[in-house]
């Protein structure tokens, strides 16, 4: 840590005592060439996360009194940052030596890019395909409904492969991409602040896609750095939630995201979500509908 960091590493914790310390321990080697600080916002964890983090001298800990979701907490962390670059880092992500250094160099070397992200791998070494293309109205059902996914599976997953850049070599060359989850996202702080940060209507999903859309509309590019690789466990913080609740958050956030799209995509999205809800098991349907169909101007 330093009084004048280049990189502010920002992480949101919710019951992450088992994985976040490892992610933080890896930072010294991953960002060896650039001074950095670490800011963690804990979302009222019920495990030992807050105590584990409070005992660390390398962490600026902000403890909240309720689970606010990722978006609000990430914005609170960004508001405390001093670095010229912000690294949004998931608790379940491990960056190997010099990975963050190389991301910094890649972003600094592309003046048209507002952010840079690495190539993601699963713990077993297989590619995670975490980069995303944003689907149009015809592909929406195949990406976000159970029936659509089953149809896509029966055809050999052509839509999933397209959406996840699975047509690229492994690892891919550096290139500009549509979107990525904010699991390891290095952002120019001045541009993040100018954009107003993440939109806090979103709770846990699509806040990154929304920010990326706003940046694209302003002419900025998102740089995928395929020659920098990280390991991502994916979804650790959601494993304690019932599947219907995760689905409700996702579908509600999808509706929020599509509310900012042209009418054709917005209507297609509403039809997709409502059709998907009608096909859910009766045991989950009422609770799922109550959350997923909340007004799009409020968090889930």
Radius of gyration: 19 Å
The portion of residues forming beta strands comes to 15-25%
Order of helices and strands: EHHEHEHEEHEEHHHEEEHHEHHH
How many E-type strands? 11
Largest sheet: 9 strands, mixed
- Share of residues in helices: 25-40%
- Regarding quaternary structure, what we see is single chain
| Total DSSP helices | 13
CATH topology type of the largest domain: Spore Coat Polysaccharide Biosynthesis Protein SpsA, Chain A
Q: Please tell me the overall pLDDT.
A: 93
| Poorly predicted ranges | none
How would you classify the helix and strand content by structural class?
alpha/beta
CATH architecture of the largest domain: Alpha-Beta Complex
The number of domains is 2
- Can you identify the CATH superfamily of the largest domain? Spore Coat Polysaccharide Biosynthesis Protein SpsA, Chain A
* Rough outline: globular
| Span between termini | 35 Å
What is the highest CATH level, the class of the largest domain? Alpha Beta
Walk me through this protein's architecture:
With 300 residues, the chain is an alpha/beta fold. It folds into two domains: 7-129 and 168-238, Spore Coat Polysaccharide Biosynthesis Protein SpsA, Chain A, CATH 3.90.550; 135-164 and 241-300, no CATH class. It is built from 13 helices and eleven strands. The strands form two sheets. Strands 1, 2, 3, 4, 5, 6, 8, 10 and 11 form a nine-stranded mixed sheet that branches. The chain has a two-stranded antiparallel sheet with strand order 7-9. Helix 11 (243-258) packs antiparallel against helix 12 (263-278) and helix 11 packs parallel to helix 13. The relative contact order is 0.15. The mean pLDDT is 93.
